[in-house]
Amino acid sequence: MDPGEGLEQYIGSKVRDARVDKARAKAEGCEWSQSYLAKRVFVSQTRISEVETGDVPPDRDLAGKLESVLDLPRDCLVDLVRILEQGTVLDYAKTYLRRQDKARIIHTAGSIVPGLLQTPDYIRELLLTGQAGDPTDLDSYVEQRMARQKLWEQADPPWMSAVIDEAALYRATAPQLERLLEAQGSPNITIQVLPFGAGHITGHIIGTIAVLTLPNGARGAYTEGFLTGSYSEDAAEVIKYQRIYDRFAASSLTAEASTDKIHEVVKRSK
């Protein structure tokens, strides 16, 4: 394995070298084989082999576990994984995703379920229909998108208000609908459904818009359509997209009625 072949191989070499060093030192009196390391981080031996060869790099969660178990410096692998992920993100989305990780308030409206609430099966459906990312590497993309949801595990996660077009509910998978109901029960997440009967505004959500408020009070606006999008922190742009979001939210069902609507769609899908 040549670490110079790519970042995946470099990450793999760091994991393998750290494991081999522990094996040579007979750390904790164990052999430190791939199988032993796999048990310590709760994955299969095959998964560790994939990481070490660079075939399938770890996601952020696994990278963090490997750092801890192998006594590597904090974030030395996680930061490399973040850099690797950026290579699979379209340029116009990179700044938005970095800001999203730090945002304190997120207002979003869209014709699909927002990324921070998506389930793996739903992400795969989007990929296969060409609505999200490159479908040539499904597993890697799903891992990356799910890794972004780690922000919900923070001690003080962001506040999120999401408007979802009713049509998106009928296109969602059963696990995705259950995830929306679960999210609706969170104290920091509010979901509103824009119903078919919302008048002339119905059907005007094409793609996704989001307005972020950062810890220092700065704000940014993001819009994304089919293979195109933009992120701006220009005040006029932010105000424009906040007004668009507010209009959608005002025409949507209440949170309580939205929960009832999701339950209704769940029953119809059975």
Automatic annotation (TrEMBL):
SMART domains per the UniProt record, alphabetical: HTH_XRE
Database matches in PROSITE patterns: HTH_CROC1
HTH cro/C1-type domain sequence ranges: 32-77
SUPFAM superfamilies associated with the record: lambda repressor-like DNA-binding domains
Top-level taxon: Bacteria
Cross-referenced InterPro entries: Cro/C1-type_HTH, DUF5753, Lambda_DNA-bd_dom_sf
Cross-referenced Gene3D superfamilies: lambda repressor-like DNA-binding domains
Protein name per Swiss-Prot or TrEMBL: HTH cro/C1-type domain-containing protein
Organism the protein comes from: Streptomyces albospinus
Origin organism lineage: Bacteria, Bacillati, Actinomycetota, Actinomycetes, Kitasatosporales
